[in-house]
Specification:
Helix content of chain B: over 70%
Order of helices and strands of chain B: HHHHHHHHH
Largest sheet of chain A: none
Largest sheet of chain B: none
Helix content of chain A: over 70%
Shape of chain A: flat
Strand content of chain B: under 5%
Number of domains of chain B: 2
Low-confidence stretches of chain B: none
Structural class of chain A: mainly alpha
Oligomer: heterodimer
Number of domains of chain A: 2
Distance between the termini of chain A: 39 Å
């Protein structure tokens, strides 16, 4: 009995470590902030590790963006908790934060020189161009999966136009989606066959 | 005590900023002005560093401000301050979601939010494009802004964008490999005659 418990504890510890290591890697290799991490988070946790489904990762991103704070820290913490409870949440959070902390502490002393170096500026310009592609890549996969009707298309296009064109804050766009969902849910409660769960 | 102050300032910023790192920048700037810790020029260079170093922009800027104010311990305390609200809220929300997982209303709400999140991700691509693919940000708004789009596009940037999409979608290359190659491509294309 004790051996089984020890084994279970060891498995759990290993899982928490794996969550930590995965988010450490993601944190270490993403430049451009939270949104740039979305494609990497999806790639690692959905496509490679199979820890979570495509649909569920979008819901994690939805909650991350509706919460205050950094999107990447929120996603790492929520996902960690979902996979391995409290310890997983701590593991995910430390993983995503530690690379920043270590790198920035090292860089802080000579930060102004880094900022002014033309070769570094050119490299980071290339990375930003690439990040646009990576974000689009993740967006295409997620759109294919989560847009199933005319309302969905309308919500995607409407969100892009509102946020990019009219500078509407993301939280308002999410609130619109939430209201649409609740209204649709209330309208459809009478219908007997509503199998709209993905 | 400067460390306690640092902690609470970043805790407050973490707790009250919606919309990720970029939304935190003005809040951090306000606090720095109030405290007199850093002038605007220093702050702008700090944001530039946060954007070009790996990781979350909010954590990066908190670490840099913390270091500026109180060395390595300051950096650690500011970072802890900015992430702690996320941790606490994520735990509360996760518990709440677990309890209401089967609720029809919640499932419908998430179903309708998914396209919005996709839209926000596409919008994020636009915002990064403004500082990379475009020669200058579109500031004129709709529909005039979109009309002047073709003349603002940097062709060299489109090459990197195209190769990235080819790499990840067709060749299934690892994103980290593609990122590394684009850093090189950025240098080569910038110095191309």
């Amino acid at each position: 009995m004790e051996a089984v418990q020890t084994q279970a504890r060891r498995d759990r510890l290993q899982q928490v470590f794996e969550i930590f290591a995965t988010f450490f890697k993601i944190g270490f290799f993403t430049i451009g902030g939270g949104y740039a991490m979305i494609p990497l988070i999806k790639d690692e946790t959905v496509d490679k590790k199979g820890w979570i489904s495509d649909e569920d990762i979008i819901d994690i991103f939805a909650v991350s963006e509706s919460m205050p704070g950094s999107i990447s820290v929120n996603s790492a913490t929520l996902l960690g908790y979902r996979l391995a409870g409290f310890a997983g949440a701590i593991g995910g959070m430390l993983g995503v934060v530690l690379p920043s902390f270590v790198i920035l502490s090292c860089v802080a002393a000579f930060a102004s020189e880094l900022d002014a170096n033309p070769v570094i500026t050119a490299a980071f310009w290339g990375i930003r161009c690439c990040v646009v592609g990576l974000i689009l890549h993740a967006a295409i996969d997620l759109i294919k999966l989560s847009v199933q009707d005319a309302m969905g298309i309308l919500l995607v296009i409407g969100t892009v136009l509102l946020v990019v064109g009219a500078n509407v804050h993301a939280i308002f766009a999410i609130a619109i989606g939430l209201v649409v969902g609740i209204v649709r849910s209330l309208l459809s409660t009478n219908k007997p066959t509503k199998g709209a769960r993905a | 005590m400067i460390y306690i102050k640092l902690f609470f300032i970043f805790f407050r910023i973490g707790l009250f900023s919606f919309g990720g790192g970029y939304a935190m920048i003005p809040l951090i700037q306000d606090e720095l002005e109030i405290q007199g810790w850093m002038d605007t020029t220093e702050f702008h260079s700090l944001i530039a560093i946060s954007e070009i170093t790996p990781g979350s922009i909010s954590v990066n800027s908190a670490t840099l401000v913390g270091y500026h104010v109180g060395g390595i311990p300051g950096a650690a305390i500011a970072t802890a301050g900015i992430v702690l609200p996320s941790l606490l809220l994520a735990l509360l929300i996760s518990k709440f979601m677990q309890r209401h997982e089967r609720s029809e209303l919640m499932q419908e709400a998430f179903l309708a939010m998914r396209p919005v999140i996709c839209g926000l991700i596409v919008a994020a691509a636009f915002f990064v494009a403004e500082t990379s693919i475009l020669k200058q940000p579109i500031t004129l708004g709709l529909p005039k802004g979109f009309a002047q789009l073709p003349e603002l596009i940097n062709i060299k940037a489109l090459v990197i964008l195209g190769l990235t999409l080819l790499g990840v979608r067709r060749l299934k290359a690892h994103p980290i490999l593609v990122l590394t190659c684009s850093a090189l491509a950025g240098i080569i294309l910038t110095y191309w005659p």
